[in-house]
Amino acid sequence: MTLLREAIGERLRRTRTSQRRTLREVSRVARVSLGYLSEVERGRKEPSSELLGSICVALDLPLDELLRRVADDLGPVYLPEVPDTLAAELVAA
Amino acid sequence: MTLLREAIGERLRRTRTSQRRTLREVSRVARVSLGYLSEVERGRKEPSSELLGSICVALDLPLDELLRRVADDLGPVYLPEVPDTLAAELVAA
């Protein structure tokens, strides 16, 4: 299962590079450290909602648009797998 | 600006209640504590991507669908405000 922070990080990175901007510039505008932004883009750090908001502002990317793009990246074929044991629990509940 | 964790929490809560399920049942299936799930639903705790994935599985809600619904909740009128000072920095950069 793709993790949300990985999908968000990849989309942030693609948005930044499509704008031909550097990590340094975006991190400065977003007021986050360059190292932190780099870790977020690589899906290694879970950004807080506040910092994600700052990064979106720095990229001029509305949050709802980010989410739609990430949803598209995940693709329509994505479905979480419910283990049989859990499915049985749900039916029994 | 609406924070992502608040929008996600509200959408998780609406999904759960529309299924007429209790915090107790969903927290058990997702293997998170009831108190933690409650805090996530109220937007007070930032869920890790792993725990968010577990909650989505427990709600039978694909991650991409969650994101699209949250994007809809945020609404098309949402646009982050770029402070004038930052806009000037962007132009100068």
Structure in words:
Chain A is mainly alpha-helical. Chain A has a single domain (4-92), classed as 434 Repressor (Amino-terminal Domain), CATH 1.10.260.40. Helix content of chain A is 67%, strand content 0%. The first copy, chain A, contains six helices and no strands. Chains A and B meet through α1, α2, α4, α5 and α6 of A and α1, α2, α4, α5 and α6 of B.
Structure in a nutshell:
The structure is a homodimer of 93-residue chains. Helix content of chain A is 67%, strand content 0%.
Structure class of chain A: mainly alpha
For the report, how would you describe the main beta sheet of chain A? none
Biggest protein-protein contact in the assembly: A-B, 43 and 42 residues
Apparent shape of chain A: globular
Task: Give the N-terminus to C-terminus distance of chain A in angstroms.
Answer: 25 Å
| Structural domains of chain A: how many | 1
Q: What letter string, H or E per element, gives the SSE order of chain A? A: HHHHHH
Number of beta-strand segments of chain A: 0
Average pLDDT figure of chain A: 88
Low-confidence stretches of chain A: none
